Every structure is written in structure tokens, then in C-alpha cells.
Amino acid sequence: MKSVFFPSLVLLMTVTIAFTQPIKIDFDALQETKPWLETEQWEPVPAVVTPGVYTSAPDDAIILFDGQDLNSWHKPKYGYGARMDEVESIVKWKLEHPENSAPEWTVKSGALIVKPGGGAIETNQAFGDCQLHIEWLAPEDPGKKDQGYSNSGVFLMGLYEIQILNSYENKTYANGQAGSMYKQHIPLVNASRPPGEWQSYDIVFMAPKFNNDGSLQSPATITAFHNGVLIQNHAILKGPCVYIGEPYYFAHPEKLPLLLQDHGDKVRFRNIWIREL
Ligand code: MG
Q1: C-alpha Rg value of the chain to the nearest Å
Q2: What is the pLDDT of residues 211-227, one digit of tens each?
Q3: Residue 88 belongs to some domain of the structure
Q4: pTM beyond 0.90
Q5: Separation of 155 CA from ligand 1 center, angstroms?
Q6: Does residue 222 lie within any of the structural domains?
């Protein structure tokens, strides 16, 4: 009896210790090898198209932001991960330690504005399969370029990122431009408006499903429109969207909060609504 019990206890202690705190990547130590460059894809560059107009919420939608307040949101203690081991440890930590605080982003003139350094924000409610509408604006700043020009992101379930970036006449790697499923799927076209103008994403997201043993039953898929133009057509995801290395799936709950990224730029949001599917 004792010989069976003891290894189980050791295993339990090891798992508990391993997730006492999420992994924190030391980016200074990685400056020499820059492993994030390995997953940047610069070709093919999506064709440019000129987009149309916006959509207001239908009456069965859950309103996440209507220009008034951040009542539907909180600031998670840990946001999202840059590498799969970090991602996995953050999700496990969050499930065990639901420590959240008030979001630090600003609401001004009907818009929700990222507070650089203020951290990501997450919905109080968790979502899985959904239809999401979100409008965003990349502020004009000619001094910025590449991934540093109005970067944010919509992380479905806090894991699967559709990139927000000024991609109007701003070159970057194609699988990291606006409308990409970050480092996994290049958008079909570049439907970006110029910085300073409101833009929209309309998204149909199907969450991944897992078997009882934790194995993958079906991957996450996404169909997305940027300013009304189809940019992702039932794209199949390889796992969470990460900055460094290859993604893979790990079993997680069928619903998790929607997360918006603080990447240090004052990107604005408005008219955010969601319908559960
Ligand atoms: Mg981003």
C-alpha cells in the first residue's frame, strides 16, 4: 500500500511545485539566438483591397463594450504566454488561482483605450464557440513601424490570437500582420484601413474539443472578416498562437475568457459584442 501511495504523493508534489508560478521567459537571455525569427513568414504578401462599412449588435448579442464602462472586464494577474510551456503554465495557474483585479485601460469618448504597460484585459465571462464583432483603431504615428505600429490582439479563449496591427502600408512578416492568426495563418487579403480610421473584425470561432483522456478530438477553427472582407476561411489552428516556437494542443476547459492584448500601443476599441454558438 505504502509503495503505491508514496510515488503518487511525490508526483502530486512535483506537479504542485511546477505550477506554483507560471514560467517567465527571460528575453534578455534569448537576444543572441532570437528564436522568434524562426517562425516569421514574410511571403506571400496578401493583396490589398479597399473595404466597406460596420455592423451594430443584433438583439441576442452579449454586449462586452458599448462605449460606457469596463464592467464586463477584469485584469488577469497573468495575461498570455509567448512560448507553449509558458502558455500552458499560465492557463493551469489561472484555473487554480483566479486572482483578478480592475482593468487599467481607459474609457474615453466612447472608446476603450489600451494603457501601455497596464496589462491585458479579459472578459469576466468565459466563452467557447462564438461569433464576435469588435471594432478597433490604430492611432496615427508615422514614427512607428513593423510590429511596433499599433500592435494589440484579440485572443479567443485567451489563447488563439487574431492579430491587431496597423497593416496599411506598414511592412511586417505576413503571418504577423493585421488579420493573421498570429504565426499560423496569413490573411487571405489585406483589407486594412489607414491608421486613425475605425476598422472591424467579424469572427466565427469554434473552440477545440478534447476527449476525456486529454487527447484532441477536433482543432480550433476560425472564419474572419476584416472590414467585411473575408480574411480567414475556416482556418484550422495548430494550437495556441505563440511568439516563439511551434504550437501544440493541450486539454483546457471548453470555455475561457476572451482577452485583449496590451502590446504597448494605445490601440482603441469600440462596439464589442459576442454571440455564443
Ligand atoms: Mg498582437
Answers
A1: 19
A2: 999 999 999 999 999 99
A3: yes
A4: no
A5: 9
A6: yes
